[in-house]
Phosphoinositide phospholipase C (Arachis hypogaea), 596 residues
Amino acid sequence: MSSKQTYSVCFCCRRRFKLAAAEAPPEIKSMFGKYSDDNELMTASHLQKFMVEVQCQQNATEEEAQAIIDSLKHFHRKGLNLDAFFKYLFSDSNLPLLPSLGVHHDMNLPLSHYFIYTGHNSYLTGNQLSSDCSDIPIIKALERGVRVIELDIWPNASKDNIDVLHGRTLTTPVELIRCLNSIKEHAFVASEYPVVITLEDHLTPDLQAKVAEMVAQTFGEILFSPGSEALKEFPSPESLKRRIIISTKPPKEYLEAKDKVDDPPQEKASGDNPKHRKVSGDDEAWGKEVPSLKGGTIADYKDNEDEENFDGEEDLDEGDKSSHHNEASEYRRLIAIHAGKPKGGITECLKVDPEKVTRLSLSEQQLEKAAMTYGKEIVRFTQRNILRVYPKGTRIDSSNYNPLIGWMHGAQMVAFNMQGYGRSLWLMYGMFKANGGCGYVKKPDFLLKNGPNGEIFDPKAKLPVKTTLKVTVYMGEGWYYDFEHTHFDQYSPPDFYTRVGIAGVPDDTVMRRTKAIEDNWVPSWNETFEFPLTVPELALLRIEVHEYDMSEKDDFGGQSCLPVWELRSGIRAVPLYSRKGDKYNTVKLLMRFEFY
C-alpha cells in the first residue's frame, strides 16, 4: 500500500489522502504489554496465559502457544513482538467460531428435535412469477448445506412426463429427472446428514407411479422408504446419514385442478462483485430490515386469507376433486414423512397423535396468527411432529421473513427462498453456521421438554436475563484490497461505521451502531456494546459494516451473522461476507466477546 492516495475532484483538481496502515488499537497494545516480558516479547508461556485469561481457552497449553508462534513468520522465534501478536489476532487461526469443533450436537435424536436448513421453491432462479426453473439453484443450495429441497411437480405439456415449475405462473419448467439427478450428485457435498425432498404434487396417479419409478431408480439404496404407514417416531439424523427422504401428502384422490395461490416471486439478484456500485430502487442497497416480532407483526402485513382458513400449499380442495381414482401404491410407499392438514382448523392441526408423527405446513402469516393464541400448543406439537413454515404468497420477489417466528415456536423447517439476498437470509446463514455447518442444529431443551411442573415453553412470556454479551468493536481492515478505491466514494476514502446487534426473541432483539470514521480504509472505532439476553440459545449476533454517504444511500461494506451460543469468548477476527453470503478475501473486523 502506498503512503498517499489521490482522488480526482474535477478535471483540474486532485485531493491526496494519507493511507493509514493497520495498527493495533490502544487496548491491544496495553494487553500486549501485560502479557509480554521486559524485552517486549510474548513467549509461549505468556501467550498461553493470554489464551486462558483473555480468550477463555481454559485448556490451552504452552505447546499450542508455541505452535502459534512457530506458524507466524517473524524474526523472534522465542516469542511474538507486538506486530506479530496483532497479526495473530487478525488471522484465520483466531476465528469467532471454532472450525475444529465440527458436528458436536447429539445427532441420535428424532428429526423433530432439530432445526433443519430448509429451502422454498428450490428450483427457481429468481422471482416467483416469471423466472426460469433450473437445477442450478438446487445445486447451489445443497453446496451451501441446505438439507430440505422443495419441488413442485406437474404434468408436462404432453401429459406424459413430469416437470418441475411454479404452477400457474410464467416460470419456465425443468424436467424432474434432471433435478433428481442433481440432488443425487450434490446431496452430500456439504454434509453427510440426510436430505429431505418435499414434493408439492399436482399429478395423476399414472404420473405419480412414474415419479415413484424415477425416484427409486435414481436414488436406489440411499432412499429411505419405511413403507406406506406413517411413522410412530421420526428416525435420527445419525441413522439416516447419506440417505434421501421423501415428504409429501399421501395420495388419496387425483385433483384435476387445485385451487391454490402459489407462493411469491423474487427479483433476480445481481452479483455482488465489489466493483458493482449501489443497487438502485426503493430498497436499501443491503436489503430491508428484518421485520420485528415485538408487539405482533400481523399489522405489518396485508392478510387476504380468511382467519379460519388454514389451508396451505399442500391442502386438497374438497370441491375440486374427481371421484376416487386408484392410488399409486408405489408412490405412497416412497413417502417417509407424511404431510397434510386435518379438517377443523388450527386446533385440530395442532393435536398430537401418540401413535404417529406427521409434518404440518403453515405460511408465515398463518403461524403469526396461530401464535397469538396457540403459542404453547405449537411448541408442544413440534416436540414430536415437524412444522414447516413457508413465505406468504405476496412475496413474489422471493424475499423472506423473520425466521425467529418459526424457531422460537420450535418449527424445524423454516423454509426460505435461497436464490436472493438480504438480512433475513443472513440470519438463516448465521443459524446454520452452528453444529459444524451440517444443516441440522439441535433445538434448545426448553423447546423439546416440558418444565419440572409440566409447563410448556411460552414464546410470549417475559423471561429474566440469563446472560449478557459484551461486544467490543475495535477496528476493521481489508476493504482497500477487496474493492476499487472509488467504489465507496469517488472523491475520498470511505467513511465506515459498524452496526451490531441481536436477532432473537423479541425482548432480546436490538441493533446498535458505532460512529463513522471519516476518510479511512482502516477504521478504528473502539466502541463497546452490551446485550442482555433472556434466551441466548436462540440469539444470533448480527454484524454489518456500511459506508456513510451524505447525499445518497449508505454503501454496503460487509456482514456476518453468528450463533451466540457457539461464540468463542475473547478477541477474535471476524470475516465479513457479501450480500449474497460469499466470504470476502481479506475484509475482517477485530472484535472482543465477553459473557457475564
The first strand starts at residue 4 and ends at 8. Confidence is low (pLDDT under 50) at residues 253-286, 296-312, 314-326. The chain is about 20% helix and 25% strand. The CA atoms of residues 338 and 377 lie 20 Å apart.
